């Protein structure tokens, strides 16, 4: 009996090893699911550190800077760039608030004068309370900075845990990112030593190919943001928008956050158009410009500038965005293309292994 089972021992060991690795993968997935709220800032810091660590290496090599100083400089520059993008909203808000205070009561009066008589023909008596609207505008839009700060502090009591989590993540992510940038060579070296020597060449080759593809994705994404920022700025300027530059640049750079960035940019542009032109021209121009921009981004620029750089067919790019968005929501849309690039690298290697196998060659 023992001699008859001896030829099957390698197969049994291989199946047992596969089941062991499958159990480890399931356990890791369960831990990720349970610890997702805790791991979120660490994963964000890891992604940012991965994107910024080549710049740290260049500073360290070319300027002979200590790695700690290079990591600190790169992180400060990245944070300043992010803050600069957020501050693009400030001139829009500061420019539009006075107009908003003036035109909301006028807009309500126009609605009363134009819409109320038309509705009265159908037996509907609808009139806006102009006095109440003016009181609301005076109360909330004429508030000083101190009043707004007091309102924010009082509302923080309601969502204190959310505010605390946001502040904690805002502090935790830069700290974790600094230490990851500082210790990146040591961490990658330790991971390399964990790989069995007989598999080291294959694993390192796979990691290098993934790194190359993700680098191409980041470069393609940056080029996409630059093209869209130029398009929106030029189109809004040609349409006569006074805030074309901050609106266009903010929308183009915020495209990196799918849907949310575009939606916020479109909302700010729509507000600016309605308040500047006080007619349907402003809203129509924004709808036309942002509609054309969305079509160009989804069906032309993203498949060409991002998809071709990472080797994904345009149809595969659209499918990845829809599939990951359906499965994982907003986070899935954000990670669709880089995850699709990694899957593509794995599929290439599986295909090569299949072509070289006895099963394919017969």
UniProtKB/TrEMBL annotation:
Cellular component GO terms held in the UniProt record: membrane
Q: Where, per UniProt, does this protein localize? A: Membrane
Asked if the record carries the keyword Transmembrane, the reply is yes
Q: What is the lineage of its organism?
A: Bacteria, Pseudomonadati, Pseudomonadota, Betaproteobacteria, Burkholderiales
Q: Which superkingdom does the taxonomy of this entry point to?
A: Bacteria
GO BP annotations of the record are: transmembrane transport
Alphabetized UniProt keyword annotations = Membrane, Transmembrane, Transmembrane helix
The protein depicted here goes by the name AI-2E family transporter
Topology relative to the lipid bilayer, per the entry, is: Multi-pass membrane protein
InterPro entries the UniProt entry points to: AI-2E-like
Entry's family note: Belongs to the autoinducer-2 exporter (AI-2E) (TC 2.A.86) family.
Its transmembrane ranges are 16-36, 71-93, 158-182, 222-241, 247-271, 278-296, 316-347
Keyword check for Isomerase, yes or no.
no
């Amino acid at each position: 009996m023992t001699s008859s089972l001896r030829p099957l021992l390698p197969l049994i060991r291989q199946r047992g090893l596969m089941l062991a690795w499958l159990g480890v993968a399931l356990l890791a997935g369960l831990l990720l699911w349970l610890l997702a709220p805790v791991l979120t800032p660490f994963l964000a810091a890891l992604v940012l550190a991965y994107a910024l660590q080549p710049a740290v290496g260049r500073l360290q090599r070319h300027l002979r800077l200590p790695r700690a100083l290079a990591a600190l400089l790169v992180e400060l520059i990245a944070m300043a760039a992010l803050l600069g993008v957020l501050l693009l909203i400030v001139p829009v808000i500061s420019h539009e608030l006075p107009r908003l205070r003036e035109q909301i009561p006028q807009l309500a009066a126009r609605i009363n004068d134009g819409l109320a008589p038309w509705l009265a023909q159908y037996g509907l008596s609808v009139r806006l309370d102009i006095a109440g609207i003016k009181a609301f505008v005076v109360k909330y839009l004429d508030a000083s900075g101190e009043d707004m700060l007091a309102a924010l502090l009082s509302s923080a009591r309601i969502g204190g845990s959310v505010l605390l989590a946001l502040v904690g993540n805002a502090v935790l992510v830069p700290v974790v990112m600094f230490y990851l940038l500082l210790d990146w060579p040591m961490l990658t070296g330790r991971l390399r030593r964990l790989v069995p020597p007989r598999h080291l060449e294959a694993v390192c080759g796979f990691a290098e190919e993934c790194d190359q593809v993700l680098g191409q994705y980041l470069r393609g994404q940056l080029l996409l943001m630059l093209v869209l920022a130029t398009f929106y700025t030029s189109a809004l300027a040609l349409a006569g928008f006074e805030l074309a530059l901050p609106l266009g640049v903010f929308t183009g750079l915020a495209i990196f956050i799918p849907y949310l960035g575009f939606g916020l940019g479109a909302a700010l542009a729509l507000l600016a158009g309605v308040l500047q032109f006080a007619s349907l021209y402003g809203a129509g121009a924004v709808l036309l410009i942002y509609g054309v921009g969305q079509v160009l981004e989804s069906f032309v620029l993203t498949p060409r500038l991002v998809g071709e750089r990472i080797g994904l067919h345009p149809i595969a790019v659209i499918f990845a965005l829809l599939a990951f968005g359906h499965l994982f929501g907003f986070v899935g849309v954000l990670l669709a293309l880089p995850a699709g690039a990694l899957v593509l690298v794995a599929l290439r290697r599986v295909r090569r292994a299949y072509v070289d196998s006895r099963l394919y060659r017969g």
